[in-house]
Amino acid sequence: MFGRVAVHIWEEDYEYLRYVKSLLSRLNIKPNFLFVEEENLLGDLVNFFSKPSEEREKAIRKHIEELFEDYEFYTLPSSGNATLEHLQENYDLIFVKYKKQLFRKSVPEWIISGTDGLRLWVYKDGANASVKKVCLPIDFSERSIRQVEFALKLREFIPFDFDLVYSINISRLKDKLFIGDYEKRLEDKKEEARHMFTDMFGERDMNLIFLEGDPYREMVKFINSSQYDLVVVGRRGRGMRERIGSVSLHLIRSLKCPVVVL
Questions:
Q1: In angstroms, rounded to a whole number, what is the distance separating the alpha carbons of residues 64 and 12?
Q2: DSSP state, 165?
Q3: Coil, helix or strand for 162?
Q4: Taking residues 65-82, what's their average pLDDT?
Q5: pLDDT of 256 over the 60 cut
């Protein structure tokens, strides 16, 4: 299920490494660390004053060795298309830290926009590695099946509870219908979703939560106020990225907790 796993690293960050180490030790996975050589030269202006690439690489290696004994370290030549192809061909899951950039895409955004099927585990500052509560925003497509399969496999190594969350967006009708008619329409949509749940997952005992309103805004608001430790979200291929892939990107940018993108 987890396949070949790598850890992207481009700065010294103990909290990020501790988070990764805690999870990988429970998953019994030996990490491959990936350092992109020219990344600091293409980033924010503040990085213009960073250490030269070779010196920076040595510092990061030393940083890793303070926490990891058994690992492999690879330096990739640049953050161009060749690097994306390498990631796509050689790894199934990559841990990466989200850091907002001023003049370019963040690393998770760059990887998502240039690959198909490569899974990301996106770390957010202050994240808790003791995963106890997980959220799966679903739409009852094939992505939802992959999300549940991933959560169930992960739970074999890390015990946690998870919720399926489905957003019903009919708020545009609120001002057009009487209150009673609107409530009936909303309940009909919930019943329709329950049937889709049964068709997809059978009688499996899983908690299904309904949200009402714009899925972008309401999903972020709900997740950030519910103390989730992790969110598992699906994405579509590159052909649909501009229209639909932005859902996962929006969650990565807006959520406080880490996000796994499948």
A1: 8
A2: E
A3: strand
A4: 88
A5: yes
For residue 165, the model assigns a pLDDT of: 96
123, 141, 156: which is the final residue of a domain?
Answer: 123
Contact 148, 136 (CB under 8 A): yes
Per-residue pLDDT at 69 exceeds 50? yes
Give residues with Cβ within 8 angstroms of 3, minimum separation 6: 91, 92, 93
For the chain, the average pLDDT equals 86
Say what the pLDDT of residue 238 is.
37
Q: Mark whether 70 and 119 lie in a shared domain.
A: yes
Residue 128: is it exposed, middle or buried by C-beta count within 10 angstroms (0-12/13-18/19+)? middle
DSSP state of 56: H
- Are the C-beta atoms of residues 185 and 177 closer than 8 Å to each other? yes
Distance CA(107)–CA(39), nearest Å, equals 9
pLDDT tens digits along 179-233: 777 788 889 999 999 999 999 999 899 999 999 888 888 999 999 999 999 999 9
Element (H, E) at 150: helix 142-154
pLDDT digits (tens, 9 = 90+) for 43-55: 444 444 455 578 8
CATH number at residue 118: 3.40.50.620
Burial of 216 (0-12, 13-18, 19+ CB in 10 A): middle
Structural domain boundaries enclosing 212: 133-261
Which pTM value belongs to this model? 0.89
Q: Please report, for residues 156, 162, 232, 262, the alpha-carbon distance to residue 201 in angstroms, rounded to integers and kept in the order given.
A: 19, 15, 17, 19
Closest to 78 measured CA to CA, from 102, 49, 114: 114
* Adjacent-strand bridge partners of 122: 96, 259
Give the CA diameter of the chain: 68
Residues 6+ apart with CB under 8 A from 198: none
